[in-house]
Automatic annotation (TrEMBL):
Coiled coil: none
InterPro entries named among the record's database cross-references: OxRdtase_Mopterin-bd_dom, OxRdtase_Mopterin-bd_sf
Segments forming domain Oxidoreductase molybdopterin-binding: 35-182
SUPFAM superfamilies from the UniProt entry: Oxidoreductase molybdopterin-binding domain
Signal peptide feature range: none
Lineage: Bacteria, Pseudomonadati, Pseudomonadota, Alphaproteobacteria, Hyphomicrobiales
TM helices/strands, residue ranges: none
Superkingdom, taxonomy of origin: Bacteria
Name of the molecule in the record: Sulfite oxidase-like oxidoreductase
Length: 202
């Protein structure tokens, strides 16, 4: 088990200091998505890294589940204003994923995470490397429930939670910062909760 860079546990901080502006604390774990929860057959699941249209590397579920795993516990913040503290995730860090793909560095500075439901969201690569993002396969010690994005979801907890694509099927490196589903519909290209970057003009 490796845990590299992924930090953020601040149990000693008062609630108010852990809540970004405009957020409230909840103990629930709301489910937010565009459509129905897709049924994903692990025998046919694949995770693909692409540069534009060109596949760079892909893994079956068995192969993916055998990659080095990282744990992270910390707070998540949804643009609909709920925050949840001390969520515990485990998965493959994007650093380890790039290394497993034989890439010394990411091919471009931006990417789109793609879901099996055809959801997309853009994230700068620098926000996923250096221990800042993972493809999570466990939540609270169990496989991720389908409603929360299982078998695998992106986790980029320092950005609003719409950036954490559920049912993620791959990462597509792009030459430019390309808007994903919500970013095309008025949401912020970056989405930093601490700067309250909810909408494109925030
Ligand atoms: N594939 C996919 N990922 C998605 C979404 C979606 O519709 N499809 N919704 C996003 C939004 S808007 C939010 S707020 C979070 C919600 O995650 P949760 O349902 O686990 O709380 O997932 C994000 N990831
Ligand atoms: Mo959302």
């Amino acid at each position: 088990m490796v845990t590299r860079g992924f930090t953020g546990r601040r149990p000693d901080k008062p609630v108010a200091e852990r809540l970004p502006p405009g957020q409230y604390l909840t103990d629930d774990f709301p489910v937010l998505q565009l459509g129905p929860t897709p049924r994903i057959d692990l025998a046919r699941w694949r995770f693909v890294l692409r540069e534009g249209a060109k596949p760079l590397k892909s893994w079956s579920w068995q192969e993916f589940d055998a990659l080095p795993r990282t744990r992270w516990t910390g707070d998540i913040h949804c643009v609909t204003k709920w925050s949840k503290f001390d969520t515990a995730w485990e998965g493959v860090s994007v650093d380890d994923l790039l290394a497993a793909a034989g890439l010394e560095a990411a091919p471009t500075a931006y990417l789109l995470a793609e879901g099996f439901d055809d959801y997309t969201t853009n994230v700068p690569v620098a926000d996923l490397t250096g221990g800042r993002g993972m493809v999570a396969t466990r939540y609270a010690g169990e496989t991720i429930p389908p409603d929360h994005g299982g078998p695998a979801r992106l986790l980029v907890p320092h950005l609003y939670f719409w950036k954490s694509a559920k049912w993620v099927k791959g990462l597509r490196f792009t030459a430019k910062d390309e808007a994903g589903f919500w970013e095309l519909r008025g949401y912020h290209m970056y989405g930093d909760p601490w700067r309250e970057q909810r909408f494109s003009d925030d």
